[in-house]
Amino acid sequence: MAASAPAKAPAQQAQQSGLKNYFAGAAIIVLFIIAVLIYMFVLGNPANFEGNDPANHPVKGNYLGVVYKGGPIVPILMTCFLMVITFSIERFMTLGKATGTGSIDAFVRKIKSLLDQNNVQAAIAECDKQKGSVGNVVRSVLGKYKEMEGEGALQKEQKLLAIQKELEDSTALELPMLEKNLTIVATLASVATLIGLLGTVLGMIRAFSALANAGAPDTAALSTGISEALINTALGIGTSALAIIAYNFFTSKIDSLTYSIDEVGFSIMQNFGSKN
User: Is there a domain that residue 13 lies in?
Assistant: First the structure.
């Protein structure tokens, strides 16, 4: 039974990863539907326009109608915006859970102090209290630490390699969960700008078409084209900026967690090397 346990953990993680991919895909579809409904029934509400007709200009000071005039690219940009918000909330909750129940810095100091006192069992108990990704990794490594202490058939270097491998394997199992969906946020940081640029180009095409008419230019079409161009530019840049901020924030949090894992792992290796 003990031999089969290590193989089971990656399989379970792969299954959970597949489910999360499914839910991420389903979330994108749902968000697109929500964005289209908002565009049609909230932004496109006849009350937002002169004469209660969406074909007319928006009522003065009505920004919902102004955004509606951005054209069919607006629902796509709104989907991108909702995706950034949704996956940022999901990452925030996941990383908060991964951090554990207490301060990571205090936990690291406590583990170091207990190792200096050669109290490995108390350090394991602290990991059970802390929980989260850092607590899980450190507990796994401390378990290998105790196992190697009672192992008489291996040389010291072999024991240190075994502990190091346990650290690497445990970290490799935890990191994918921390980085999940960050690729989507990073992609939106650049894609949103490009989609906004596409809307800008389409709007300018409409505006120049109005100018190209013989005789007096079609001022309504010209106004609509310019509005479409500017609105899509604003939505694209705003969504991209938010995605960049979110991505940098979450990557810095993940870097902090991995640094804490490396710090504790180094202390465990150093402690074992000096006392065994």
Answer: no
Number of C-alpha atoms within 13 angstroms, CB side, residue 255? Answer: 6
d(CA 269, CA 263): 10
Residue 4 lies in a domain: no
Is 212 inside any structural domain?
yes
Mean pLDDT of 188-194: 94
Integer CA distances (angstroms), 211 to 69, 223, 238, in order: 19, 11, 29
Integer CA distances (angstroms), 150 to 82, 146, 153, in order: 54, 7, 9
pLDDT per residue over 144-183, tens digit each? 998 998 877 888 889 899 999 999 999 988 888 888 889 9
Task: Write the pLDDT tens digit of every residue in 8-19.
Answer: 444 555 555 556
In a domain, 147, yes or no: yes
* Full residue range of the structural domain in which residue 266 is found: 23-275
Enter the pTM of the model: 0.83
What letter would DSSP give residue 131? -
CA distance 248 to 46: 40
Rg (C-alpha) for the chain, rounded Å, is 28
The alpha carbon of 216 is separated from its chain's Cα centroid by a whole number of angstroms, namely 51
For residue 118, give both structure tokens. Answer: 């050669």
Are residues 34 and 82 in contact, defined by beta-carbon separation less than 8 angstroms? Answer: yes
Please return the burial class of 219, using the count of CB atoms within 10 Å of its CB with bins 0-12, 13-18 and 19+: exposed
CB contact at 8 A, 87 and 185 = yes
